[in-house]
């Protein structure tokens, strides 16, 4: 590392190359192209891009050096950001209200002009964009299921953007298409599906993966829906738990099934679907003349991190002949861990699975998958054989033109960063990263158990990395549980969160759920987070909430 630290690119002081970037004043726009390069290239003085424009970069002839220097400056900005990102002395965010950002801050304006801006201004804009954003990779960012910043994954994303291709045909994405096959196969092996079964696709997020699952299930029972529409089929009923992700209901809305026909099955105190309730919900839907066809079980619910009993649910689905989907967007990563994969027992029996590597596996956004047990079924359900794209008489094996499996046409390359990270870490690397996140959750849980100023939302040990709790300010500590206390408690988390965001030292989310008033949800998916950060979070909540 010593020798690396000598490199300018890793030295924050060297980032602005002789002049702090924040001090740079972009010159007023002397618009137009200058074919003559006016930037200077010495490592001692700042490279000045104030009379350089995008038209002076590649593909303009003779602009290789200018392009290289510009991109090096960009890399320097990004590296400076990353080096700061992991430092605990750096704030997680520099919060501004929407109107403040829209009005413009210290020369940073979102407005677009008719005239081209010079590249010096663009460098300042890039820096400001990061400055006013939220550092989701910071070790003290606990707000979302996706967090952290993996350097290999980032390299993968850079390469992907450089390749700038589309996933619809082998013709233009030969390497990425085969990588997708390899990675999806590996993930399906982990589900326990044999080589004879399984297919999949990378999707733009877990909501779209879940949408696919409903689409496939409906097509499985009523293939005529593809051409004849919803009026040709009976009124359908879908089932999922009251703790499931809202995307299941959204899928019903998008696909014309209707949110009223999504029946929310009761959960136990821990947030797990109660199988007996599913059974009676199916029976009552049938009694009302509905056609039950689909159950979505959740492996790792969004708020509680609960795992539904997959084997029990699979038994019910088999008995009633229903499509069983498992939304493991959040919990799928635990399959990488020998210690924790037992929580997903029964997932091999699912007809389809959502699994988002951009959550627990720390792959940069977006990286989400939908895995389907029935081989060839994605193609059957979605193909429309557009002749301009999927010509059957191409000179290669056109089964690798996977674009007709999807509901999209253009599709971003999401596989490469995951493939590269998998190479870099191996299964072992993912396993230890995931185990560490769950150990952090246990550490927080154990701390909270012994505190009188905090109250756990559920008493049992976390199954995933979600820990849910209330903070009880002094003024509420002697109130008996009940309506009066709940009313006051409901206001505590939003007030603390508002102060927290204004100060910017850490970030955690809150929500109400069912009959529970607003509580904090802490989630761990960032391998940079240590126990000291957990301690810091609790100290911050106490400091900000003490006088409420
Ligand atoms: N299902 C999207 C994740 C939402 C969250 O980060 O809480």
What is the rounded Rg?
A: 26 Å
- Overall form: globular
Query: Strand order of the main beta sheet, please?
Result: 2-8-7-6-5-3-4
Low-confidence stretches: 1-45
Search tags:
alpha/beta; seven-stranded mixed β-sheet; disordered N terminus; binds gamma-amino-butanoic acid
Structure description:
- The protein is an alpha/beta fold and 548 residues long.
- It has 16 helices and twelve strands.
- The chain has helices spanning 2-5, 64-85, 98-103, 119-131, 151-163, 174-191, 206-221, 225-228, 247-254, 275-287, 310-320, 377-382, 415-449, 474-477, 483-503, 531-545, and strands spanning 141-142, 199-203, 236-241, 262-265, 291-298, 323-327, 352-355, 368-372, 454-456, 467-471, 507-513, 516-522.
- The strands form two sheets. The chain has a seven-stranded mixed β-sheet, with helices on both faces.
- Strand 3, helix 9 (247-254) and strand 4 form a beta-alpha-beta unit.
- Helix 5 packs antiparallel against helix 13 (415-449) and helix 15 (483-503) packs across helix 16 (531-545).
- Bound molecules: gamma-amino-butanoic acid (ABU).
- Gamma-amino-butanoic acid is lined by residues 144-145, 206, 245, 302.
């Amino acid at each position: 590392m010593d020798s690396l630290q000598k490199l300018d690119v890793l030295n924050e002081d060297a980032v602005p190359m002789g002049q702090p970037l924040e001090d740079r004043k972009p010159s007023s726009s002397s618009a137009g192209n200058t074919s003559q390069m006016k930037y200077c290239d010495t490592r001692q003085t700042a490279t000045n891009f104030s009379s350089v424009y995008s038209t002076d970069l590649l593909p303009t002839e003779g602009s290789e050096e200018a392009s290289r220097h510009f991109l090096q400056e960009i890399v320097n900005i990004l590296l400076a950001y990353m080096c700061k990102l992991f430092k605990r002395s750096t704030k997680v965010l520099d919060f501004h209200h929407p109107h403040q950002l829209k009005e413009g801050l210290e020369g940073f304006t979102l407005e677009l002009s008719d005239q081209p801006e010079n590249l010096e201004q663009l460098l300042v804009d890039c820096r400001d964009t990061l400055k006013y954003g939220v550092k989701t990779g910071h070790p003290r960012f606990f707000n979302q299921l996706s967090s952290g910043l993996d350097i290999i994954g980032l390299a993968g994303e850079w390469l992907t953007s450089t390749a700038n291709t589309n996933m619809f045909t082998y013709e233009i994405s030969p390497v990425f298409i085969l990588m997708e096959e390899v990675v999806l196969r590996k993930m399906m092996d982990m589900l326990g599906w044999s080589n004879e079964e399984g297919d999949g696709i990378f999707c733009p997020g877990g909501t779209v993966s879940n949408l696919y699952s409903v689409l496939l299930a409906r097509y499985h029972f009523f293939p005529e829906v593809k051409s004849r529409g919803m009026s040709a089929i009976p009124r359908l009923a879908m089932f999922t738990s009251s703790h499931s992700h809202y995307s299941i209901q959204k899928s019903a809305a998008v696909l014309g099934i209707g949110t009223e026909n999504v029946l929310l099955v009761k959960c136990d105190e821990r947030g797990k679907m109660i199988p007996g309730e599913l059974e009676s919900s199916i029976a009552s839907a049938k009694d009302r003349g509905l056609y039950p066809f689909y159950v979505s079980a959740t492996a790792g619910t969004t708020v509680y991190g609960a795992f539904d009993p997959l084997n029990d649910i699979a038994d019910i689905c088999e008995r009633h002949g229903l499509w069983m989907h498992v939304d493991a967007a959040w919990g799928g990563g635990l399959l990488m861990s020998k210690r924790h994969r037992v929580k997903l027992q029964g997932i091999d029996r699912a007809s389809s699975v959502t699994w988002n590597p951009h959550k627990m596996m720390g792959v940069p956004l977006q990286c989400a998958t939908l895995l389907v047990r029935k081989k060839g079924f994605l193609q059957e359900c979605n193909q429309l054989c557009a002749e301009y794209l999927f010509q059957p008489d191409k000179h290669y094996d056109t089964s690798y033109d996977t674009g007709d499996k999807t509901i999209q046409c253009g599709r971003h390359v999401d596989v490469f960063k995951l493939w590269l990270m998998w190479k870099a870490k191996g299964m072992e690397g993912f396993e230890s990263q995931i185990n560490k996140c769950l150990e952090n959750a246990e550490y927080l849980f154990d701390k909270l158990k012994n505190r009188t100023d905090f109250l756990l939302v559920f008493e049992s040990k976390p199954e995933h990395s979600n820990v849910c709790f209330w903070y009880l300010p002094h003024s509420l500590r002697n109130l008996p549980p009940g309506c009066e206390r709940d009313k006051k408690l409901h206001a505590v988390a939003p007030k603390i969160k508002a102060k927290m965001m204004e100060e910017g030292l850490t970030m955690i989310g809150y929500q109400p759920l069912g009959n529970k008033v607003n509580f904090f949800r802490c989630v761990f998916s960032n391998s940079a987070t240590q126990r000291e950060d957990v301690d810091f979070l609790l100290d911050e909540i106490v400091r900000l909430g003490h006088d409420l």
